[in-house]
Automatic annotation (TrEMBL):
Protein name from the UniProt record: Uncharacterized protein
Superkingdom classification of source: Bacteria
Originating species: Rhizosphaericola mali
């Protein structure tokens, strides 16, 4: 490291030989990532698998794909800022940035609630096109990260009218320097647009709890899909569930049995006072031997 004299530093352009006309195609959606997320070129060799691990990661490290039938993509470019001199000449001060608007047909108000929760949270994003090309930021240390934005937010959705369909939107404001100069485009050999974010699961106590048994059902929060129909056996294991007491300490679950009549699971243990019940973390649910992919449950509070 050393100090430099600004007057002695001269810049130069880049070589202009053309070998490939690589550009990002029509976007299919985006993946929102934490601002501090970084990954390597090796991680992108099987990027779909890597993203899956991040989708199921702890909330602070989680990635959130949005590929719900993108129907419109608009780009607004701000005017370049120029200084006008009295002699009639101009000097370019800065390039105008881009405003990217992604409009999604599917997802309805369930998706709207999720997208609105990201506002002012400081997330970055990866853009993915219809051919599974994707654009990321290349950092000075050789790592990669999401594109850095001035703002990334979900505005209020466009409601149904007699002439137009309901649309959820995500808007990104980004500089030319970030979107063009600092970005790189890669092509994935797996369809990234098939990636889906986690579904929220609502737990309910469907029979009177006792000091030795809890009877719990699980349905998706938005559509009310009953997990028992597909995962009755997979979730009938102790390792799929977590119970804590009022201090946050784990309460041992000694057995889990299916209740086909109530379409619920019976958790056996020694329960007292106010307890909290949940499915285990998404990464644990996804892994062998449970192998239940794509869900995160709320925490159910029960007072005995």
């Amino acid at each position: 490291m050393a100090l430099l004299n600004p007057c002695s530093v001269t810049g130069r352009g880049s070589n202009t030989g053309v070998e490939c006309g690589k550009t990002l195609g029509v976007p299919a959606g985006i993946i929102m990532v934490p601002a501090n997320a970084k990954w390597s070129l090796a991680d992108m060799q099987d990027f779909a698998a890597y993203i899956q691990t991040k989708i199921h990661a702890a909330a602070s490290q989680r990635w959130y794909p949005v590929f719900t039938d993108l129907k419109n993509f608009e780009v607004t470019q701000d005017s370049d800022t120029q200084e006008n001199f009295a002699d009639g000449t101009n000097k370019m001060i800065r390039l105008g940035g881009y405003t990217l608007t992604f409009s999604f047909l599917e997802g309805g108000e369930c998706l709207a609630k999720s997208l609105l929760s990201f506002n002012k949270k400081g997330y970055r994003f990866i853009v993915v096109d219809v051919d599974s090309q994707f654009k990321v930021r290349k950092n000075g240390d050789g790592s990669y990260s999401g594109l850095r934005v001035t703002d990334l937010y979900a505005p209020s959705p466009n409601l149904n009218t007699l002439a137009a369909s309901y649309m959820n939107r995500i808007i990104a404001s980004i500089s030319v320097d970030e979107y063009i100069e600092k970005a790189e485009i890669f092509l994935n050999d797996t369809d990234l647009t098939e990636l889906n974010g986690l579904l929220e699961v609502e737990l309910s106590s469907v029979a009177a709890p006792t000091a030795t048994k809890l009877t719990i059902s699980a349905k998706t929060e938005c559509a009310g899909t009953d997990l028992y129909d597909e995962y009755a056996d997979a979730l009938a294991v102790v390792d799929a569930w977590k119970v804590t007491d009022s201090t946050g300490a784990d309460v041992a679950i000694t057995a889990v049995a299916k209740n086909d009549t109530l379409k619920a699971w019976e958790l056996t243990g020694a329960f007292t006072g106010t307890i909290k019940v949940s499915l285990v973390a998404p990464s644990v649910l996804q892994a062998t031997p449970i192998s239940v992919d794509g869900f995160e449950s709320e925490t159910l509070s029960i007072t005995l």
